[in-house]
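Entry — protein

Goal — fold tokens:
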Amino acid sequence: MIMDRERFERLVERAVASLPEEFHARLENVDVVVEDWPSHHDLARLGLRNRYGLLGLYQGVPLTERGGHYGLVPPDKITIFQKPIEAKCRDDASITAEIGKVVRHEIAHHFGIGDGRLRELEEDEDR
């Protein structure tokens, strides 16, 4: 399934906007962007070989690791990778659902929740 970039970006914006209000106030220094693919550098840094395996990436300092010295820093960045999501999905509805899931996952990293705990939460949600 292939979607034009503008529509994909609107779906990402909608996914962010649909987050509960208490999260929005804590996302003040976070940029959410869309890119086609993860870079070779990002894949290598994460120990990944397959570019289809990375749907999103959080880069920054999680809120749980910030101290009093934190300030005057560039925004944290959440990147949503369009091509791997499209490759995984069969239709618009599945792309929309996957974008929502990836956005929530990466924002959870911003709040200091690691991959292991996220897997546990997702397993609980699937039951």
Notes: The chain has a mean pLDDT of 87. The chain has one domain: 5-126. The helical segments are 5-17, 21-24, 40-46, 82-88, 92-110, 115-126. The first strand starts at residue 30 and ends at 35.
